[in-house]
Amino acid sequence: MVKFNCLICNEDIIYENESKDRICYFCKKTFNSQMVCKKGHFICDECHSLDAYNIITNYCLNTDSINPMGIILDLMKHPSINMHGPEHHYLVPAALITAYSNKIDGNLRPLLNECQKRSKNILGGFCGYYGACGAAIGCGIYASIIQNSGPLDKKEWGLCNLITSKTLECISQDGGPRCCKRNSFHAITTAINFTKEYFNIDLKKDITISCSYSNINKTCLKEKCPYFKKEN
Fold first, then answer.
1. CB–CB of 148/101 below 8 Å?
2. What are phi and psi of 141, to 5 degrees?
């Protein structure tokens, strides 16, 4: 999805005569620039040109948010995050791990590095060809990483598979065709509830989803999708 206006709000970009210090929406670093959108959003050149995996990592390392849904909604505004694509397999667990780490004051960088390595093993089209959506597997990656668990663990192993199965069940109820946005929203919602029930950690979930992507999704379920915004 290519945007020529502000990536955040789609307002016009203003080119002012005087440069000012501005904080980048994604990396939170300060830059001196004459460019800003009508609503005050500024995105630095580096973040504007980063690929999906790098923009996800940079954003996550520079946010203190404990709201994983807010994190993915912000990142979905970046042009490197396509309507559909395997970048969502990293986006979901990265947002969850970031929110969890911020909640417990953990060391995020090594967790994100491992998250990215694992998520890249989930191929595009995995949902249709292997019967397991990458967003749901991303929830399993999240549970595995925050528990520091592996194939020989007992309770932890069970929880990794349980969160994946609960997410897959939620995703499956809508039927196809696939939608990486819808599945990501389901995955985040399921993982937030799971984190509270099984890890006793409250992640913020005060956002009501009203999807703004149906107009660019040729296979959108429209009114059959729980996130569909009718005015689209």
1. no
2. -60, -45
Kindly tell me the burial class for residue 94, based on how many C-beta atoms sit within 10 Å of its own C-beta (0-12, 13-18, 19 or more). Answer: buried
pTM of the full structure: 0.87
CB 135 within 8 A of CB 96: no
Question: Per-residue pLDDT tens for 103-158?
Answer: 999 999 999 999 999 999 999 899 999 999 999 999 999 999 999 999 999 999 99
- For 131, phi and psi rounded to 5 degrees? 75, 25
Alpha-carbon span 51 to 87, nearest angstrom: 10
User: What is the C-alpha to C-alpha distance for residues 204 and 161, in angstroms, rounded to an integer?
Assistant: 23
Give whole-number Cα distances, 24 to 34, 162, 194, in Å.
13, 38, 33
- Give the CA diameter of the chain: 63
Is the preceding omega at residue 177 within 30 degrees of 0, hence cis?
A: yes
Which helix H or strand E contains 14, and what residues bound it? strand 13-23
